């Protein structure tokens, strides 16, 4: 029997039985809380928006602290994502907070690919978690989860409509992250303009099919407040770390010549609503949505690319082991096929090389025979020439010998005539007088 069938049978036929007394497993929620508190929590925020919209100031205001960071300039050649992680402590609860900001977003003349570095960064965090999850020895309980839980998308307070860059970017991100749109520096436009601007933004998001994060209403304890806050999206916020004395209290506010804007005054902006929804009410839901929705979608797509599926071609359940075995057999079959192709290719190349070598050898033999014949012809010519030269030398030597012989004979004959003449002179002195 397959493991999937056994697991299905175990899950069927579950019965509810009463307890005769107290057992103690009602303390599980307390155990879970204590364990979670001891381990601490992590929360990762991505701030997307053009330079100068007050992203860093709003983060400082939200968490009531001063995060270190260098101010961004408008001279960046492209979009860069800057990530900073901080350890925060409130009462006995620890929070590892990661803030990722988009440096240079919207500063380029050509903004067509401005969203790509953001998408690549989000996918890289999903991939890192997936690789950790697929390890044989996993340490997920100590692994620093860097997946983005919330994306605060800062919208410039133009009062007219969303920019095409904003629509394209949010459309590319809505399936990968929980998007919470906010109108930055909302004190730059009037109340009536702000109301119309919110309606315009919501209409454009719906018309372009952009899915923003909706605060959950399935939990009765927060259904009412979340349902109310969903109607206030996008939030119009103001950030300030400067505290001014208003009445008898010190409050975060912005001072203008015409008056004071209080950050935590709901009549002035939606900062309190954002803080309530993001941190105090729905932080865990944002973490859960990231894991159960966005990460699961990425994981499913990646595993399907790798060939893993939940069902076979007949739509029957298919276990991971069976998928692995099928994929392994498929891989081995492809490997053998490639090996056979490579072997045949190798044999073919060897044959071609042998034919080339034989042809080259034949050409070398023919060339050698031609050179050998040419050498023999040249040798014969040289031998004939040498023989004729030898004959000429011998004939010359013979003529020389004959000439020397004649010369020696002539000189001997001349010498004897001279002696005879001298002898006659001596005998006949009259010959000298003559």
TrEMBL record:
<dbReference type="InterPro" id="IPR030379">
    <property type="entry name" value="G_SEPTIN_dom"/>
</dbReference>
<dbReference type="GO" id="GO:0005525">
    <property type="term" value="F:GTP binding"/>
</dbReference>
<keyword id="KW-0342">GTP-binding</keyword>
<comment type="subunit">
    <text>Septins polymerize into heterooligomeric protein complexes that form filaments.</text>
</comment>
<keyword id="KW-0966">Cell projection</keyword>
<dbReference type="GO" id="GO:0042995">
    <property type="term" value="C:cell projection"/>
</dbReference>
<comment type="function">
    <text>Filament-forming cytoskeletal GTPase.</text>
</comment>
<dbReference type="InterPro" id="IPR027417">
    <property type="entry name" value="P-loop_NTPase"/>
</dbReference>
<keyword id="KW-0547">Nucleotide-binding</keyword>
<keyword id="KW-0206">Cytoskeleton</keyword>
<keyword id="KW-0963">Cytoplasm</keyword>
<dbReference type="Pfam" id="PF00735">
    <property type="entry name" value="Septin"/>
</dbReference>
<feature type="domain" description="Septin-type G">
    <location>
        <begin position="39"/>
        <end position="305"/>
    </location>
</feature>
<dbReference type="InterPro" id="IPR016491">
    <property type="entry name" value="Septin"/>
</dbReference>
<comment type="similarity">
    <text>Belongs to the TRAFAC class TrmE-Era-EngA-EngB-Septin-like GTPase superfamily. Septin GTPase family.</text>
</comment>
<protein>
    <recommendedName>
        <fullName>Septin</fullName>
    </recommendedName>
</protein>
<dbReference type="GO" id="GO:0005856">
    <property type="term" value="C:cytoskeleton"/>
</dbReference>
<feature type="coiled-coil region">
    <location>
        <begin position="321"/>
        <end position="399"/>
    </location>
</feature>
<keyword id="KW-0175">Coiled coil</keyword>
<feature type="compositionally biased region" description="Low complexity">
    <location>
        <begin position="407"/>
        <end position="417"/>
    </location>
</feature>
<feature type="region of interest" description="Disordered">
    <location>
        <begin position="403"/>
        <end position="434"/>
    </location>
</feature>
């Amino acid at each position: 029997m397959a493991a999937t069938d056994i697991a299905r049978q175990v899950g069927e036929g579950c019965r509810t039985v009463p307890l005769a007394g107290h057992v103690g497993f009602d303390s599980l929620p307390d155990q879970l809380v204590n364990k979670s508190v001891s381990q601490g929590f992590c929360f990762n925020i991505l701030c997307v928006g053009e330079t100068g919209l007050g992203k860093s100031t709003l983060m400082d205001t939200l968490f009531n602290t001063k995060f270190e960071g260098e101010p961004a300039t408008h001279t960046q050649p492209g979009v860069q994502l800057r990530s900073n992680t901080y350890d925060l402590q409130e009462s006995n609860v620890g929070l590892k907070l990661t803030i990722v900001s988009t440096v240079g977003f919207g500063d380029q003349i050509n903004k067509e690919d401005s969203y790509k570095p953001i998408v690549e960064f989000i996918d890289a965090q999903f991939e890192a978690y997936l690789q950790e999850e697929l390890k044989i020895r996993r340490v997920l309980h100590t692994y620093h989860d860097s997946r983005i839980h919330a994306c605060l998308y800062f919208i410039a307070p133009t009062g007219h409509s969303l920019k095409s860059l904003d629509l394209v970017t949010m459309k590319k991100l809505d399936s990968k992250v929980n998007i919470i749109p906010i109108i930055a520096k909302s004190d730059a436009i009037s109340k009536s303009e702000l109301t119309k601007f919110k309606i315009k933004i919501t209409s454009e998001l719906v018309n372009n099919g952009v899915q923003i994060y909706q605060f959950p209403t399935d939990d009765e304890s927060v259904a009412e407040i979340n349902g109310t806050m969903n109607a206030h999206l996008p939030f119009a916020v103001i950030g300030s770390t400067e505290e001014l004395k208003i009445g008898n209290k010190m409050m975060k506010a912005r001072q203008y010549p015409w008056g004071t804007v209080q950050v935590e005054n709901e009549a002035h902006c939606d900062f309190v609503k954002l803080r309530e929804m993001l941190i105090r009410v729905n932080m865990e839901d944002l973490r859960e949505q990231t894991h159960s929705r966005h990460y699961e979608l990425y994981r499913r797509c990646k595993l399907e690319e790798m060939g893993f599926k939940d069902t076979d071609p007949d739509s029957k359940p298919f276990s991971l082991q069976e998928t692995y075995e099928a994929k392994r057999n498929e891989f081995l079959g492809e490997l053998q096929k490639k090996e056979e192709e490579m072997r045949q290719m190798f044999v073919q190349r060897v044959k071609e090389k042998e034919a080339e070598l034989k042809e080259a050898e034949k050409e070398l033999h023919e060339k050698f025979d031609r050179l050998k014949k040419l050498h023999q012809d040249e040798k014969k010519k040289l031998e004939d020439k040498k023989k004729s030269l030898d004959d000429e030398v011998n004939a010359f030597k013979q003529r020389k010998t004959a000439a020397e012989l004649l010369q020696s004979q002539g000189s001997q004959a001349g010498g004897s005539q001279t002696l005879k003449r001298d002898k006659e002179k001596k005998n006949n002195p009259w010959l000298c007088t003559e």
